[in-house]
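Good morning C.,

I know you're traveling, so I'll keep this short. The sequence:
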Amino acid sequence: MMRYLFCLLLSLPLTVFSQTKVYTGQLKSPNELIFEYRSNTVYRVNNAVMKSEYLFIDGEKVYFRDRKFTTDVKYTIKSDVIYKGSSTSTFDLLFTLKDQKLYIGNSTFRTDCLYTFKDGIIYRGDSTSSFDAFMSYELAEPSDLIYVAMMIAPY
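The tokens, ready to paste straight into the viewer:
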């Protein structure tokens, strides 16, 4: 009984502090970690020990670092859509996440698919071929996939 409680206490921090992570390769090793999302902050990871605050998420707004001025808004996220700046106009719609695929604008055409997310692997375009796999991810919550899309969209 005591051993069971000890194991439960050891595993508690792992579940409470789970993080969404993006890696440059498919191995998901600490050396390939480039982004980490936790507690409304996206960290840019330079190496296994050094990381810096990159983006701050407050509700639907995504800011550079911890700024909260309207001019500092990089993206606005509403459900599975990413807008430029603080706008939610269709003219500022950048990306749409639909069926685990990231599309340009509000298109769902195969040719407008930038990335496909499947089983923790990110593929280029509308493909799940191992030749098109170039990044991987871990999700703390299934709804965090939009944040992974936001982090890798510039790539």
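Safe travels,
E.
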